[in-house]
Design a protein that fits this description.
Number of strands: 15
Largest sheet: 5 strands, antiparallel
Radius of gyration: 21 Å
CATH architecture of the largest domain: 2-Layer Sandwich
Order of helices and strands: EHEHEEEEHHHEHEEHEEEHEHEEHH
Strand content: 15-25%
Oligomer: single chain
Number of domains: 3
Shape: globular
CATH class of the largest domain: Alpha Beta
Distance between the termini: 36 Å
């Protein structure tokens, strides 16, 4: 029997993270948008507790209008001394033939932080996106900013603190930070995305509640100087020679682009291309590639920026190594505006994942 000409794409989604719902929406959006004539999609789900789920549970995690486009697949399991993908007995797929490439559409801890990438590396499977190191660094905002600073990239003043050090120490911490920078400031869990746990602190009376809120989500908290900012985003695509997209601007329906503004508020919008000077656009595109290279990125990332409305200075905020793929997500919209429609973008991501996998498997191990 000849090889199926369609790309066998494995969508891995869900996960033990505060961004579980975002992952489900991303997975459904990708499955719905892909051409069934070009992609044969297997779907693998991870529960909120971090367990790889059964085929039946995979179907329950996805909306009815994508069910006819997928073949649910049972979890990764051990085959001798090697991990492989195992199909259920009822599946028409040959269990010895895993997908050509895995798309780990998982956001936040246990998905975007290098853990699932490590599992796929051990399994010897090709996958889309950044590797273990870049994923881990991109997830940890504190380590990320340290690397950006080392690379000479412009980052706002910040402080970081461990959750365990907060007990009985919040007033002292507040006074210490107030000596470094003034209000407003932002508190964030260091290892989370989609603005989960992010608070804007307008003054001393809001400090304690905001810090304790962030501490619920992570052992490490980032406290960052706030500015009167426009929020810009740029998409990166590639491996060793990455490309930057046009630049888009987020116009939040709230005071800032928090979780509700991103996913629930219809008044939030994206302006693509952003209304910037040619010089500002090129600076953001250049910094996007520099940030991607600073963490040794691969495949894709979205890089977020601030422009100070008062001074015009561009500040690098963060890099997202697995940006959302929901219908309103910036990453795919930026590339569509740059001349790469969704289906072509997916083909390029697949090629980049296979390219990186081929490089890895070609290395000598003895």
């Amino acid at each position: 029997m000849g090889r199926n000409p369609r790309i066998r794409l494995g969508i891995l989604f869900g996960g033990r993270s505060g961004e579980h719902e975002v992952s489900l929406t991303s997975a459904a959006s990708v499955i719905r948008a892909l051409d069934p004539a070009e992609f044969e999609i297997t779907a693998m789900g991870v529960s909120r507790s971090g367990k790889l789920v059964s085929s039946d549970e995979v179907r329950r995690m996805l909306p009815a209008n994508v069910q006819d486009r997928i073949v649910p697949q049972n979890p990764l399991d051990a085959a001798g001394s090697r991990l492989r993908l195992s199909a259920s007995a009822a599946d028409p797929l040959d269990p010895s033939s895993p997908p050509d490439v895995i798309f780990p559409l998982m956001h936040g801890p246990y998905g975007e932080d290098g853990t699932i990438q490590g599992l796929l590396e051990i399994a010897g499977l090709a996958y889309i996106g950044c590797g273990v190191l870049a994923s881990a660094v991109g997830m940890d905002k504190v380590v990320m900013k340290r690397l950006f600073q080392q690379a000479g990239l412009p980052t706002l003043p910040y402080r970081d603190v461990l959750s365990r050090d907060l007990k009985g120490n919040l007033d002292e911490l507040r006074r210490s930070i107030e000596e470094s920078f003034d209000y407003p400031m932002f508190s964030k869990p260091a290892n989370l995305g989609s603005s989960v746990g992010v608070r804007k602190i307008h003054g001393p009376g809001e400090f304690t509640e905001a810090i304790l809120n962030a501490a619920q989500y992570d052992r490490k908290i980032l406290i960052e100087k706030g500015i009167n900012a426009r929020e810009l985003e740029c998409a990166v695509l590639g491996n060793d020679e990455p490309l930057a997209s046009t630049v888009g601007e987020v116009i939040p329906g709230h005071e800032f682009y928090d979780y509700d503004a991103k996913y629930n508020d219809p008044s939030s919008r994206l302006d693509i291309p952003a209304r910037l000077s040619d010089e500002q656009t090129e600076e953001i595109r250049r910094l996007s590639v520099a940030a991607f290279k600073a963490i040794d990125g691969a495949g894709l990332s979205r890089v977020d920026f601030f422009i100070d409305r008062d001074t015009g200075k561009v500040w690098l905020n963060e890099i997202n190594t697995m940006p959302g793929f929901t219908p309103i997500s910036m990453y795919t919209k930026l590339w569509a505006a740059s001349g790469i429609p969704f289906n072509e973008l997916m083909h390029r991501l697949v090629d980049l994942g296979l390219e990186r996998h081929a490089e890895t498997t070609a290395r000598r191990i003895s």
